[in-house]
Amino acid sequence: MVMWRPANPGRQSYATTSGICLILLVLIIQNGLIVVRAFVAIEIPVEMRHQLVEQITRLKQYTPSTTVRWVRLEGIHLTLKFLGDVSLDKLDQITVLLEEVGLRHTPFRIDIGQFGCFPSPRRPRVLWVGVEDSSGVLKSLQADLEGVLSQIGFKRETRPFHPHLTLGRVKRGAHNSTVRSLSAILEEVTIGDLGQVNVDEICLIRSDLKPTGALYTRIAMAKLEVIR
Questions:
Q1: What residues are annotated to the active site?
Q2: Superfamily of domain 2-223
Q3: Which entry of 89, 90, 96, 175 is 20 to 30 Å from 31 by CA?
Q4: Are 50 and 73 in contact (CB under 8 A)?
Q5: Rounded CA gap, 26 and 171, in Å?
Q6: Spatial distance between the Cα atoms of 97 and 138, rounded to a whole number of angstroms
Q7: Which pLDDT tens digit goes with each residue over 75-96?
Q8: How far are the Cα atoms of 42, 97, 104, 186, 212 from residue 226, in angstroms, in the given order?
C-alpha cells in the first residue's frame, strides 16, 4: 500500500507503510506511468568517500582535462542492482523485498583499494577502485537481489558481478588520440589499500539526472540481520 499527500505543484509526497521514508518526488510521466530512476546500493561512509575524492584529485593532475567525467562525492556508492525507470506502484514492493533479503544475510566488511578500468586500461571507459569481500556475503547478497527482483519483472544481469566504486567515466565522443594518451597514463596508475568499510544495510536510491550531475535520494533502507 502507498499513501499520497498533496505537496507543491509538480511534486508529490511518497511514504511507505513501513515508515521507512518520507521524501518529495519530482514526478516523471513515461508511457502513462509515473516513474523514478532507481537502483539498489550500499552507501559508503563519507570518510571513505573523501579518500576516494582525494584519489580523483590526484588523477586529474595527470589526465586530459576534457576526457573524463569525474564522480562527485555524493555520487560514490557500491551499486548492487540498477533498476532503471521504476513505476511508483513498485517502490513499496521493492522495499518489502529488500527487507526480506536483509533478513537472510549477516553484516560484513569490505576492503577498498586497487585501481582498474572497464573494459581494460588499454580501452578505458570506466575508471574505478576495487571492492573485495573475503567472507563471500557480498556476492551472495547481490545474487539474492538479482533473484528476487527478477520475480517482479526486473531483468537479470548477464555479466558477472564485479564490485567497484566508480571514480570517473570517459566522455562519449572523446577523440581517439586523447583516449590513447589517457590509456598510457592509466597503465601507470596505482592506488593502494584505502581501508575497510562495515556493511550492515542496503538502500534503494533514486537518481535524478541534472545538467550539473545526478542528484541521489535514499528512498528506503533495509538492515542486514539474520533472524534465527
A1: 77, 164
A2: Cyclic phosphodiesterase (3.90.1140.10)
A3: 96
A4: yes
A5: 27
A6: 17
A7: 999 999 999 999 988 999 999 9
A8: 18, 15, 5, 42, 40
Which residues share a beta bridge with 110? 197
pTM given for the model = 0.84
Angle at 68 between CA 66 and CA 74, to 5 degrees: 120
Distance CA(45)–CA(50), nearest Å, equals: 9
Q: Structural domain boundaries of the chain?
A: 2-223
Instruction: Note whether 98 and 132 are within 8 A (CB).
Output: no
| Alpha-carbon span 104 to 95, nearest angstrom | 15
Q: How far apart are CA 33 and CA 29, in angstroms?
A: 5
Q: Are 143 and 122 in contact (CB under 8 A)?
A: no
Give the C-alpha separation, 89 to 16, whole Å: 11
Cell of 164: 567497484
Q: What is the biggest distance separating any 2 CA atoms in the chain, rounded to whole angstroms?
A: 58
The per-residue DSSP string of 75-108 comes to G-EEEEEEEEEEEHHHHHHHHHHHHHHHTTS--E
Least confident of 21-30, 71-80, 120-129, 215-224: 21-30
Question: Could you tell me how many residues make up the chain?
Answer: 228
Terminal CA-CA length for the chain: 28
Q: Is the Cβ–Cβ distance between 60 and 15 less than 8 Å?
A: no
Cα three-residue angle 218-142-55, rounded to 5 degrees: 65
Q: Dig out the grid coordinates for 74 from the structure.
A: 555524493
The three grid cell numbers given for residue 220, joined into one nine-digit string: 528506503
